[in-house]
Queue: 2 jobs
Job 1
Amino acid sequence: MKYDSQLCKLVSARALTQDVYDFVLECPPLAALARPGQFAQIRLPGHTLRRPISICGIDKAAGTLRFVFQIRGEGTAELAQFQPGSQIEILAPLGNGFPVDPAKRTLLVGGGIGVPPMLGVAAELKDKAVAVLGFRSRDAVILEKDFQGVGAKTLIATDDGTYGHHGLVTDLCRDQEFDCVMACGPAPMLKAVKALADHRGVPCFVSLEERMACGIGACLGCAVALNKEDGTQYFGHVCKDGPVFDSHRVAW
Amino acid sequence: MADLRVTIAGVEFANPLIAASGTFGFGREYNEFYPLSVLGGISCKGITIKERPGNPPPRVTETPGGMLNAVGLQNPGVDHFIREDLPWLSKQGTKIIANVAGNAPEDYCATVEKLNDTCVDMIELNISCPNVKQGGVQFGTTTEGVYGITSEVRKHCKKPLMVKLSPNVTDISEMAVAAESAGADAISMINTLTGMRIDIRTRRPIIRNNTGGMSGPALLPIALRMVWQASQKVKIPIVGLGGISTWQDAVEMLLAGATALQIGTVLFTDPYAPIKIAEGLSRYMDENGIKSLSELTGGVRPW
Ligand SMILES: Cc1cc2nc3c(=O)[nH]c(=O)nc-3n(C[C@H](O)[C@H](O)[C@H](O)COP(=O)(O)OP(=O)(O)OC[C@H]3O[C@@H](n4cnc5c(N)ncnc54)[C@H](O)[C@@H]3O)c2cc1C
Ligand SMILES: Cc1cc2nc3c(=O)[nH]c(=O)nc-3n(C[C@H](O)[C@H](O)[C@H](O)COP(=O)(O)O)c2cc1C
Ligand code: FES
C-alpha cells in the first residue's frame, strides 16, 4: 500500500493565529507510510473535491499526522469548524516528499502557509537544519517554537518588521552555510531561493501547489510545466511527480 | 445474490459499473485501493493518434455540486497506450474500453485501426472534440456531425463501437438516433456540460482555458432526463453517466433507461464509491426480488 483513504479521529484542534489551524489526526496505517513533504487530500462533507493539505508532522509512535492550514475559502473555513473527537476522512500520504539527507546541512525556507511542510523536514534533520521562515507580520508567525524544539537553527523575517528581521527571507539566507536547500512558499520567494542555491552551486528542492481533483495522478488535473532533458517542456503533475520538484526541473 | 452482469454489444461486464474516461487514467492509481476486477469495466483516458500535451493550468476547480475540468486531452498517444498501458490493463480482470478522440475524421479512423488488433473490448468515440476541418465546430453538436463521424469510424472499426454523446446540444435524442443509424452498437451519455467560474478578485476565469466541462452530482438530473429521452428513440443499449454518486443514483439511471453505468467525478470524492455503489445495488435488488439488472432498465413509470 502506498496510500489509502481512511476515516481518522481528530485528536486535537487548535487555532495558532486568527486564521491558521493546527490539527492532529489519528491514523496509524497512514502515519506509518508518511514522509515529510507529502500531503493529504482531506474530504469535506458536501464537497465534491477534497482539499490538499501538506503533512506538517509525523508521529509514527503515536500513529498521528499533523496538519496546519489557513482559512482561504469555503472549504478550509468548514474544516476549521471540526471539533476534537470528530471523524475526518483523508487520502494520504500522497506525492513524493522532500529527499531528506541527514548528512547534509540543509537550508529550509518557508514563506507564510508554506512554513508547515518544512517542519516535518526539520524534525528529521534536527541540528542539521537551518530554518528561515518568513511571515507578513508578528501576528502571522507560526511554529517558531516547534522548529526550535526539534533542534533547528531558526530565523524569522517579517515583511513589516514587527518581528525578527525586517525584510525578505532571502536576506537571512545569504549569511548561512548549507549543502542543500528545500523550500515552500509563494512563487516569487521560491524563484529567489532557487537563484541563491544556483549561485552557491547547491541542489534546491521546491514544493509547489496546483488545484487538484484526484490527488493520485489519474485525472491529470494538477498540471505543472516541467523541463525535459532536451530543453523542451511538458506538463507533469503536482500530485504524483511532486509536490516536491528539483528546482531545475520546473519551467519557471 | 442478485446477478449484476450486463451485456452490451456482445461484451459481458461482471457488473454495470464502468469507470468514466478521464477520471481513472489507465487504472494504475486506483489499483492501490482495490483490484480493478471490482469494476465491470474501465473506460480509459481519451487517446489520440499522437501524444497531446494538454492545457496549461489551472485545469480543475470545484463548483456547487460538482467541478469543472479542462485537461485538454493530455495523453501519450495510441501507440504508447498499446505498448505501455494495455498489456498491464488487460490482465486486471475487467473489461477495457478505449476512449478515442481526435480533431479530424482521419485521426479517429487511424486510432481505431491501431486498436482493432489489440485486446481492447470496446471503442468509445468521444465526439465532443473540435472538428478542425469544420472550423472547430464539435462533431457531437449536429446530427450531420454525429452521423458523419460515426459512419466513417464504423467503416474502420472491428470492435464493438459505442458513441459518447455531448449534452451541449438542443435535442440529444436526435444525436442518439444519428449515432444509431450510422451503425453505433451502443451509446454512452452524457459527457460534461460546458461551464465557467470567475475569480472576482482578478476577474480572470479560474480555468486557464476560460471554460471547462462540468461534471459531478449537479449533472445527475440532466443526465437522467437525457437518458430517458434518448432511450425512447433508440434500440441500442445506453450506458448512463453524469453525476452518479450513490447506489440510489445508479438505480435511478437504470430506471431512466440505462443498461450499464459509468462513474467519474465521485471517485475524486470517494475512491471507494464503485464498491459501495455495487454493494448497494446488489442489496436493493435482493430486497426487492429483482433477479437481473435488465428488469430495472427503462423501468421508470412516467406520469
Ligand atoms: C500539495 C499542496 C499542499 C498544500 N498544503 C497546504 C497546507 O499545508 N496548509 C494550507 O493552509 N494550505 C495548503 N495548500 C493550499 C490549500 O489546498 C488551499 O488553500 C485550499 O484547497 C483552499 O480551499 P478552500 O475551499 O478554502 O478555497 P476555495 O478557493 O473556496 O477553493 C475552491 C477550489 O480551489 C482549490 N484551491 C483553492 N486554492 C488552492 C491552492 N492554493 N492550492 C490548491 N488548490 C486550491 C480548492 O481545493 C477547491 O477545489 C496546499 C495545496 C497543495 C496543492
Ligand atoms: C478530469 C476529467 C477528465 C475527463 N476526460 C475525459 C476524456 O478524456 N474523454 C471523455 O470521453 N470524457 C472525459 N471526461 C468526462 C467523463 O468521462 C464523464 O462523461 C463526465 O465527467 C460525467 O460523469 P461524472 O459526473 O460521473 O464525472 C472527463 C471528466 C473529468 C472530470
Ligand atoms: S490531481 Fe489528479 S492528477 Fe493530480
Job 2
Amino acid sequence: MSTGKTTLDITGLKVTIGGREILRGVDLSLQEGRVHGLAGESGSGKTMTGLAVLGLLPHGARATGRIALGGRDLLTLPPRELNKVRGGEVAMVFQDPATSLHPMLSVGRQLTEHMRHHLKLDKREARARAVELLGKVRIPGAEEAYGRFPHQFSGGMRQRIAIAIALACSPRVLIADEPTTALDVTVQAGVLRLLRGLCDELGLAVLLVTHDLGVMSAIADEVSVMKDGLVVETGPRGKVLREPSHAYTRSLLDSLPGETA
Amino acid sequence: MTLEIKDLVVEHRSPGRPVVRAVAGASLTVRPGEVVGLVGESGCGKSTLARAVCGLNPVTEGSITFEGVPVTPLGLRRRTLTGVQMVFQDPYASLNPRRRVGDQIADGLRTARDGETDPADLLERVGLPREFAGRHPHEFSGGQRQRIAIARALAARPRMLIGDEPISALDASAQAQVATLMRDLAVDSGAGLLFISHDLSVVRLIADRIAVMYLGRIVEIGDTAEVWDDPRHPYTQALLRAIPKPDGMGVLPEELTGDVPDPAAPPEGCRFHPRCPFAMDVCRVKEPEPGPVACWLHEPA
Ligand SMILES: Nc1ncnc2c1ncn2[C@@H]1O[C@H](COP(=O)(O)OP(=O)(O)O)[C@@H](O)[C@H]1O
Ligand SMILES: Nc1ncnc2c1ncn2[C@@H]1O[C@H](COP(=O)(O)OP(=O)(O)O)[C@@H](O)[C@H]1O
Ligand code: SF4
Ligand SMILES: [Mg+2]
Ligand SMILES: [Mg+2]
C-alpha cells in the first residue's frame, strides 16, 4: 500500500520555547497522495509540529532536528528561501477560515495575489486559474464568487475558499490543522470528500491534524498519535484505530462519545 | 418547574433588511430533571430560541412559560430571579477578565440569597481545586474557564439550565467531560437542562430526549436512543449519516448537499424539500404538521 514517494520527512524534531521542551523528538513522514492523520489531546504538540514545517513557530522558539523537503532541510533554510516554500510548495489551512482569509479583500484578489507572486502569472492567467480553483472546491457560481468578499459566504464555503487559496500555487504538501472542527457535520462531510479528492487527484501529501477519530477514520491513510511532544504510535489507519498497540491510543478510543464500546 | 415552549415565533428585525423569522413555530417542553438536546445546523435558530427563553429576544408569536408563568423580556437582574441560567459558548466572553473567579461565583450565590455556601464549594463541584477562587479567568484553559462559568450559573440555584453550544469552543477531550458534568449537576439538583449543540454524538451521550431543528422548526423529537437508532425525518437521517465513524474503515461520510436556506425567504411547503431525497409533490406546496416527526412520510395516523 504505502509505495508512495516520501514528500516530507520530519526526523528528531525538537522545539523549545522559553526553556520548555514542547516537541521532544518528533518523527513523521508524509507521502505523495496520502493523508497522514495526527491525533492526540490538546497541548500534545500537534499544532507546533505543523507550524515548524511552515517556519511559523512563535517568537523565541528554537527548533532542532530535520524537516526534509525535496533535498533541503527547512529548518536551516534562509528566511527568503523559506518564504518561497511557504505558500508555494507547502500550504496550510487552519480551524478558523478567518485565519487564512482577509476580510476586506475580494476572494479573487486573495486567490490571485499568491499566484502572481509565486507563479509569476499575468492578470488574465491568474484570474482564469482562480475561477478554475473555485470550481474545483465546488463554490457555486465561481465566476460571480470571484468578486465577492469572505463575509458573503457561509462558514463551510469560507473554509472551501481557504482551501482554494492554499491550493493556488500547486503545493506538494498541505498542512490542515483541525480544518473541519468548526463546521457542521453536514458541511464537514463535504470538506472531507474535497480534501480526499484533491489528495488523490493532485498527489498532495496532507498532514491532517484532528482530535476527531471519526474524521481520522474517514480520510487518513496513516495515523500518528502524539502525547507530550512525542509521537507514541504510527501505523496504517485500520491498524491504529482497530488494534492500537499503545495504551494511550486505546484510552483515546475508549473516551469517545457515541461509540458503544 | 417545567419549561413550555408553544408555537414559538421569534423574528429579527433590522433596518433596511428583510425580517428574519429565526424561530418559525417551534414547540418544546423541558421537565425538571430532564435533559433535552437541541441539535441542528448553524443558522437554524437554536440560539435565538435559547435567548428567547431567557427573555433576551422578544417573543413575536406563541408562548414560553416557565413554572406556568410567561417569560417576558426582562432586565438581567429580574431574569436571574426567574431561575433560568444560561451557559454560553465562549467562556472568555462571559466571565469578567478583571475579577477573581471566586467573586464572580459569589454574585451567583447572592442572586439565590445564599449566604452559607463558599464559592470554593462550587469550584469543587465542577471538579476544580478550591484555591482557584482567588485567581483571574486568564489563568485558566478554555475547559477550566467553562467549568467556572458553569459553577457561577449553578451558584444561582437555577431550576432550568440552558447551555448554548457550551462545549463547542473546547477540546474534544474536554468536550465530553464538560457535557457530562453539566448533565450530572443539573439532574442532581432537579433542574431541567436544555443542551444546545451541533455535535450529535455528544448530545447522544447526555440527553434523555433529542429535538432536531431545521430552519426555525422542530422537525423531529423523541427519546435519544430512538432518534439515534431509528431516525425518521429525512433531515435527521442525513445529519446522522454525516457523522464519520471511528471504525478504522476509511468510509467517507455522506454529504448533505446545499446550504441551509435563508430564513428570511424559506422554501414553500416543507422547508427541507430542496435538500430532501424523498421530496414528493405535496412537500413542495404544503408544510407538514408539527408533531414528533414533521414530515409527509410520517403523517400521524
Ligand atoms: N506561543 C506559545 N508559547 C509558548 N508555548 C506555547 C505556545 N503555543 C503553544 N504552546 C505550548 O506548546 C504545547 C503544544 O501546543 P500545541 O502544539 O498547540 O498543542 P495541540 O495543537 O496538540 O493542542 C502546549 O503545551 C502549549 O501550551
Ligand atoms: N440579531 C440578529 N439580527 C438579525 N438576524 C439574526 C440575528 N441573530 C440571528 N439572526 C439570524 O437568525 C437565524 C438563526 O440564527 P441563530 O439563532 O443564531 O441560529 P443557530 O444558533 O442555530 O446557529 C440566522 O439566519 C441568523 O443569521
Ligand atoms: S415532508 Fe417531504 S420534503 Fe419534507 S422531509 Fe418529509 S419527505 Fe422530505
Ligand atoms: Mg492545536
Ligand atoms: Mg448558535
